[in-house]
Specification:
This protein is an alpha+beta fold. Helix content is about 35%, strand content about 25%. It has a single domain, classed as Outer Surface Protein A, domain 3 (Alpha-Beta Complex). It is globular.
Length: about 100
């Protein structure tokens, strides 16, 4: 069963991939599946942030401080992207649900 990304999850990029900055965008090569993935400027920033483990809430806070975006839209779009990256096994998701 694939992990579900929530604002309390901790996410980190997996090691079985390589990526390259392409002038503000990022191309990711999944070494397990030999597939390429592309991320736009905001996706590239998220990718940069999750090279070390961070909670989704931490990433959201950084994005809100750097971009003009409504908080609800930021959270919704961030979780959707992270869920897609998790489905493609490009990130590891750890459930950090508060007690």
């Amino acid at each position: 069963m694939k992990a579900v990304v929530t604002e309390h999850s901790t996410v980190v990029a997996v090691k079985e991939q390589v990526y390259s900055d392409l002038g503000g965008e990022v191309a990711i090569l999944d070494l397990k599946g030999d597939l390429y993935y592309g991320l736009d400027e905001v996706g590239a920033r998220i990718w940069e942030l999750i090279q070390e483990p961070r909670t989704v809430a931490e990433v959201e806070g950084i994005l809100l401080s750097e971009y003009e975006v409504e908080p609800d839209r930021c959270r919704r779009d961030l979780i959707a992207l992270l869920q897609k990256l998790a489905q493609e096994e490009l990130i590891e998701v750890r459930d950090e649900t508060p007690a």
